[in-house]
Amino acid sequence: MNDSVLKVGLVQQNCSPHREENIAKTIQGIEACVAQGAELVTLQELHTNIYFCQAEDVNQFDLAEAIPGPSTEEFSEVARRLRIVLVTSLFEKRAPGIYHNTAVVFEKDGSIAGTYRKMHIPDDPAFYEKFYFTPGDLGFQPIQTSVGKLGVLVCWDQWYPEAARLMAMAGAELLIYPTAIGYDPLDDQSEKDRQRNAWIISQRAHAVANGLPVVSINRVGHEPDFAGITQGIDFWGHSFVCGPQGEYLLQASGDKEENLVVEIDKKRTEDVRRIWPFFRDRRIDAYQDLTKRYL
Protein backbone atom coordinates (compact mmCIF):
# COMPACT_ATOMS: atom_id res chain seq x y z
CA MET A 1 0.00 0.00 0.00
CA ASN A 2 1.21 3.49 -0.87
CA ASP A 3 0.81 5.53 2.33
CA SER A 4 1.06 8.81 0.42
CA VAL A 5 -2.10 8.08 -1.59
CA LEU A 6 -5.34 9.14 0.08
CA LYS A 7 -8.79 8.25 -1.23
CA VAL A 8 -11.16 11.17 -0.66
CA GLY A 9 -14.94 11.09 -1.02
CA LEU A 10 -17.20 14.05 -1.85
CA VAL A 11 -20.95 14.03 -1.22
CA GLN A 12 -22.63 16.62 -3.47
CA GLN A 13 -26.34 16.81 -2.73
CA ASN A 14 -29.52 18.88 -2.75
CA CYS A 15 -31.13 19.75 0.59
CA SER A 16 -34.76 20.02 1.65
CA PRO A 17 -36.40 21.58 4.75
CA HIS A 18 -36.56 18.11 6.31
CA ARG A 19 -33.51 17.56 8.51
CA GLU A 20 -33.87 13.81 8.98
CA GLU A 21 -34.36 13.30 5.25
CA ASN A 22 -31.20 15.30 4.52
CA ILE A 23 -29.17 13.39 7.09
CA ALA A 24 -30.36 10.01 5.84
CA LYS A 25 -29.41 10.95 2.28
CA THR A 26 -26.04 12.26 3.45
CA ILE A 27 -25.29 9.02 5.28
CA GLN A 28 -26.17 7.05 2.15
CA GLY A 29 -23.74 9.25 0.22
CA ILE A 30 -21.01 8.67 2.79
CA GLU A 31 -21.58 4.93 2.60
CA ALA A 32 -21.40 5.05 -1.21
CA CYS A 33 -18.02 6.81 -1.00
CA VAL A 34 -16.72 4.29 1.53
CA ALA A 35 -17.82 1.46 -0.78
CA GLN A 36 -15.45 3.01 -3.35
CA GLY A 37 -12.59 2.96 -0.85
CA ALA A 38 -12.74 6.47 0.63
CA GLU A 39 -10.80 6.97 3.88
CA LEU A 40 -11.72 10.66 4.14
CA VAL A 41 -15.21 11.90 3.26
CA THR A 42 -16.13 15.58 2.90
CA LEU A 43 -19.60 17.10 3.11
CA GLN A 44 -20.94 20.41 1.82
CA GLU A 45 -21.66 23.50 3.90
CA LEU A 46 -24.66 23.33 6.28
CA HIS A 47 -25.71 19.95 4.90
CA THR A 48 -28.33 19.06 7.53
CA ASN A 49 -30.89 21.61 6.35
CA ILE A 50 -31.84 24.23 3.80
CA TYR A 51 -29.53 27.15 3.17
CA PHE A 52 -31.51 29.33 5.60
CA CYS A 53 -29.40 32.47 5.01
CA GLN A 54 -31.49 33.45 1.96
CA ALA A 55 -33.51 35.75 4.27
CA GLU A 56 -33.17 37.30 7.72
CA ASP A 57 -35.58 35.45 10.00
CA VAL A 58 -35.04 35.03 13.74
CA ASN A 59 -36.94 31.73 13.67
CA GLN A 60 -34.12 30.15 11.66
CA PHE A 61 -31.89 30.30 14.75
CA ASP A 62 -33.94 27.34 15.99
CA LEU A 63 -32.00 25.20 13.49
CA ALA A 64 -28.75 25.72 15.43
CA GLU A 65 -27.45 23.19 17.95
CA ALA A 66 -24.68 22.79 20.46
CA ILE A 67 -21.41 21.01 19.73
CA PRO A 68 -21.45 18.33 20.96
CA GLY A 69 -25.11 17.82 20.21
CA PRO A 70 -27.54 15.73 18.12
CA SER A 71 -25.73 16.09 14.78
CA THR A 72 -22.29 15.45 16.21
CA GLU A 73 -23.65 12.31 17.89
CA GLU A 74 -25.10 11.05 14.61
CA PHE A 75 -22.05 11.76 12.48
CA SER A 76 -19.66 10.54 15.16
CA GLU A 77 -21.39 7.18 14.98
CA VAL A 78 -21.13 7.17 11.17
CA ALA A 79 -17.39 7.89 11.28
CA ARG A 80 -16.87 5.20 13.93
CA ARG A 81 -18.99 2.59 12.14
CA LEU A 82 -17.34 3.15 8.75
CA ARG A 83 -13.84 3.79 10.15
CA ILE A 84 -13.35 7.04 8.23
CA VAL A 85 -12.28 10.60 8.85
CA LEU A 86 -15.36 12.74 8.20
CA VAL A 87 -15.60 16.50 7.56
CA THR A 88 -19.02 17.93 8.46
CA SER A 89 -20.53 21.43 8.53
CA LEU A 90 -23.01 22.55 11.19
CA PHE A 91 -24.92 25.59 12.48
CA GLU A 92 -23.46 25.93 15.98
CA LYS A 93 -25.23 27.51 18.94
CA ARG A 94 -22.31 28.45 21.14
CA ALA A 95 -24.12 30.62 23.70
CA PRO A 96 -27.25 32.79 23.87
CA GLY A 97 -27.00 35.16 20.92
CA ILE A 98 -23.72 33.68 19.64
CA TYR A 99 -23.89 31.35 16.66
CA HIS A 100 -21.22 30.08 14.28
CA ASN A 101 -20.92 28.35 10.93
CA THR A 102 -18.71 25.51 12.12
CA ALA A 103 -16.92 22.59 10.50
CA VAL A 104 -16.49 19.54 12.72
CA VAL A 105 -13.98 16.84 11.80
CA PHE A 106 -14.40 13.32 13.18
CA GLU A 107 -11.66 10.76 13.60
CA LYS A 108 -12.07 7.08 12.63
CA ASP A 109 -13.01 6.16 16.20
CA GLY A 110 -15.83 8.72 16.21
CA SER A 111 -14.06 11.26 18.38
CA ILE A 112 -13.98 14.94 17.39
CA ALA A 113 -10.55 15.58 15.90
CA GLY A 114 -11.12 19.32 15.75
CA THR A 115 -13.38 22.18 14.73
CA TYR A 116 -13.09 25.27 12.55
CA ARG A 117 -15.40 28.28 12.74
CA LYS A 118 -15.91 30.17 9.49
CA MET A 119 -13.81 33.32 9.60
CA HIS A 120 -15.06 35.37 6.63
CA ILE A 121 -18.81 36.04 6.80
CA PRO A 122 -20.58 37.39 3.67
CA ASP A 123 -23.58 39.70 3.51
CA ASP A 124 -25.02 39.75 -0.01
CA PRO A 125 -28.51 39.42 -1.47
CA ALA A 126 -29.74 35.89 -0.61
CA PHE A 127 -26.55 35.26 1.39
CA TYR A 128 -27.34 37.14 4.62
CA GLU A 129 -24.85 35.30 6.77
CA LYS A 130 -23.82 38.24 8.96
CA PHE A 131 -27.33 38.14 10.44
CA TYR A 132 -26.74 34.57 11.64
CA PHE A 133 -23.04 33.95 12.17
CA THR A 134 -20.48 35.42 14.53
CA PRO A 135 -17.05 35.43 12.84
CA GLY A 136 -14.84 32.53 13.87
CA ASP A 137 -12.29 32.89 16.64
CA LEU A 138 -10.24 29.70 16.26
CA GLY A 139 -7.90 31.12 13.64
CA PHE A 140 -6.44 29.22 10.71
CA GLN A 141 -5.20 26.04 12.33
CA PRO A 142 -5.12 22.68 10.50
CA ILE A 143 -6.82 19.74 12.18
CA GLN A 144 -4.58 16.74 12.84
CA THR A 145 -6.15 13.43 11.82
CA SER A 146 -5.02 9.89 11.06
CA VAL A 147 -5.07 10.73 7.33
CA GLY A 148 -3.06 13.93 7.68
CA LYS A 149 -3.34 17.59 8.68
CA LEU A 150 -6.51 19.03 7.15
CA GLY A 151 -6.77 22.73 6.38
CA VAL A 152 -10.54 23.06 6.69
CA LEU A 153 -12.04 26.39 5.62
CA VAL A 154 -15.67 27.21 4.74
CA CYS A 155 -17.21 28.71 1.59
CA TRP A 156 -16.61 32.50 1.65
CA ASP A 157 -13.15 31.75 3.07
CA GLN A 158 -12.29 30.28 -0.33
CA TRP A 159 -11.94 33.73 -1.91
CA TYR A 160 -9.16 34.81 0.48
CA PRO A 161 -5.56 33.85 -0.33
CA GLU A 162 -4.52 34.83 3.20
CA ALA A 163 -6.62 32.04 4.71
CA ALA A 164 -5.19 29.41 2.38
CA ARG A 165 -1.64 30.67 2.96
CA LEU A 166 -1.90 30.63 6.74
CA MET A 167 -3.31 27.10 6.69
CA ALA A 168 -0.45 26.02 4.44
CA MET A 169 2.13 27.75 6.63
CA ALA A 170 0.73 25.90 9.65
CA GLY A 171 1.34 22.58 7.94
CA ALA A 172 -1.94 21.70 6.22
CA GLU A 173 -1.51 18.79 3.80
CA LEU A 174 -4.64 19.63 1.85
CA LEU A 175 -7.23 22.41 1.83
CA ILE A 176 -10.92 21.50 2.19
CA TYR A 177 -13.76 23.92 1.44
CA PRO A 178 -17.32 22.88 2.38
CA THR A 179 -19.43 25.22 0.25
CA ALA A 180 -22.92 26.54 -0.51
CA ILE A 181 -22.70 28.80 -3.56
CA GLY A 182 -24.98 29.28 -6.51
CA TYR A 183 -26.59 31.54 -9.05
CA ASP A 184 -29.37 34.06 -8.90
CA PRO A 185 -31.86 32.46 -11.32
CA LEU A 186 -32.40 35.89 -12.90
CA ASP A 187 -28.76 36.21 -14.00
CA ASP A 188 -28.06 35.53 -17.66
CA GLN A 189 -25.87 32.61 -18.67
CA SER A 190 -22.74 34.70 -19.30
CA GLU A 191 -22.89 36.12 -15.77
CA LYS A 192 -23.43 32.66 -14.33
CA ASP A 193 -20.41 31.35 -16.22
CA ARG A 194 -18.23 34.24 -15.01
CA GLN A 195 -19.18 33.66 -11.38
CA ARG A 196 -18.65 29.90 -11.47
CA ASN A 197 -15.34 30.19 -13.31
CA ALA A 198 -14.09 32.85 -10.88
CA TRP A 199 -14.94 30.52 -7.99
CA ILE A 200 -13.00 27.67 -9.56
CA ILE A 201 -10.04 29.82 -10.63
CA SER A 202 -9.63 31.29 -7.14
CA GLN A 203 -9.39 27.91 -5.46
CA ARG A 204 -7.14 26.40 -8.10
CA ALA A 205 -4.89 29.42 -7.56
CA HIS A 206 -4.71 28.59 -3.83
CA ALA A 207 -3.55 25.10 -4.81
CA VAL A 208 -0.84 26.51 -7.08
CA ALA A 209 0.35 29.28 -4.74
CA ASN A 210 0.67 26.86 -1.83
CA GLY A 211 1.59 23.65 -3.63
CA LEU A 212 -1.33 21.83 -2.00
CA PRO A 213 -4.30 19.74 -3.17
CA VAL A 214 -7.68 21.45 -2.81
CA VAL A 215 -11.02 19.72 -2.16
CA SER A 216 -14.09 21.90 -2.79
CA ILE A 217 -17.51 20.36 -2.13
CA ASN A 218 -20.63 22.35 -3.08
CA ARG A 219 -24.42 22.00 -2.83
CA VAL A 220 -26.43 21.38 -5.98
CA GLY A 221 -29.96 22.09 -7.14
CA HIS A 222 -32.56 24.80 -6.63
CA GLU A 223 -33.59 25.95 -3.16
CA PRO A 224 -36.53 28.37 -2.99
CA ASP A 225 -36.41 31.46 -0.80
CA PHE A 226 -38.59 30.52 2.19
CA ALA A 227 -39.45 34.22 2.62
CA GLY A 228 -40.74 34.47 -0.94
CA ILE A 229 -38.77 37.65 -1.62
CA THR A 230 -36.33 36.39 -4.25
CA GLN A 231 -36.32 33.66 -6.89
CA GLY A 232 -34.20 31.43 -4.64
CA ILE A 233 -30.75 30.08 -5.41
CA ASP A 234 -29.60 27.61 -8.06
CA PHE A 235 -26.65 25.97 -6.32
CA TRP A 236 -24.20 25.20 -9.08
CA GLY A 237 -22.52 22.02 -7.84
CA HIS A 238 -19.29 21.51 -9.78
CA SER A 239 -17.53 20.16 -6.70
CA PHE A 240 -13.93 19.48 -7.61
CA VAL A 241 -10.53 18.33 -6.47
CA CYS A 242 -7.29 19.67 -7.88
CA GLY A 243 -3.65 18.84 -7.32
CA PRO A 244 -0.80 21.11 -6.16
CA GLN A 245 -0.31 22.56 -9.64
CA GLY A 246 -4.00 23.32 -9.97
CA GLU A 247 -4.61 20.30 -12.18
CA TYR A 248 -8.06 18.77 -12.08
CA LEU A 249 -8.23 15.39 -10.37
CA LEU A 250 -12.03 15.30 -10.22
CA GLN A 251 -14.96 17.49 -11.21
CA ALA A 252 -18.64 16.85 -10.46
CA SER A 253 -21.58 17.93 -12.58
CA GLY A 254 -23.50 21.15 -12.16
CA ASP A 255 -26.95 19.63 -11.87
CA LYS A 256 -26.81 16.21 -10.19
CA GLU A 257 -26.37 14.71 -6.76
CA GLU A 258 -23.16 12.69 -6.83
CA ASN A 259 -20.99 10.62 -4.49
CA LEU A 260 -17.49 10.69 -5.89
CA VAL A 261 -14.09 9.36 -4.83
CA VAL A 262 -10.67 10.48 -6.00
CA GLU A 263 -7.09 9.50 -5.20
CA ILE A 264 -4.78 12.24 -3.96
CA ASP A 265 -1.03 11.65 -3.84
CA LYS A 266 0.09 13.77 -0.90
CA LYS A 267 3.76 13.22 -1.78
CA ARG A 268 3.33 15.47 -4.81
CA THR A 269 3.23 18.49 -2.51
CA GLU A 270 6.91 18.08 -1.69
CA ASP A 271 7.78 17.32 -5.32
CA VAL A 272 5.97 20.43 -6.59
CA ARG A 273 7.36 22.70 -3.90
CA ARG A 274 10.89 21.69 -4.92
CA ILE A 275 10.36 22.89 -8.50
CA TRP A 276 8.15 25.86 -7.60
CA PRO A 277 9.71 27.11 -4.33
CA PHE A 278 7.22 29.88 -3.57
CA PHE A 279 7.70 29.48 0.17
CA ARG A 280 11.45 29.92 -0.19
CA ASP A 281 11.09 33.11 -2.23
CA ARG A 282 8.40 34.85 -0.20
CA ARG A 283 9.54 38.33 0.91
CA ILE A 284 8.34 38.05 4.48
CA ASP A 285 10.34 41.19 5.34
CA ALA A 286 8.15 43.29 3.03
CA TYR A 287 4.60 42.13 3.80
CA GLN A 288 3.83 44.10 6.97
CA ASP A 289 1.16 46.18 5.25
CA LEU A 290 -0.98 43.11 4.62
CA THR A 291 -2.43 43.51 8.11
CA LYS A 292 -3.86 46.93 7.19
CA ARG A 293 -7.36 47.45 5.77
CA TYR A 294 -6.20 49.73 2.98
CA LEU A 295 -3.08 51.66 1.93
UniProtKB/TrEMBL annotation:
Organism in which the protein naturally occurs: Rapidithrix thailandica
Protein name, per record: Carbon-nitrogen hydrolase
All copies of domain CN hydrolase, residue ranges: 6-266
Pfam families, A to Z: CN_hydrolase (PF00795)
GO terms, biological process: putrescine biosynthetic process from arginine
Keywords: Hydrolase
Superkingdom of this protein's organism: Bacteria
Database matches in InterPro entries: Aliph_Amidase/BUP, C-N_Hydrolase, C-N_Hydrolase_sf
GO MF terms held by the record: N-carbamoylputrescine amidase activity
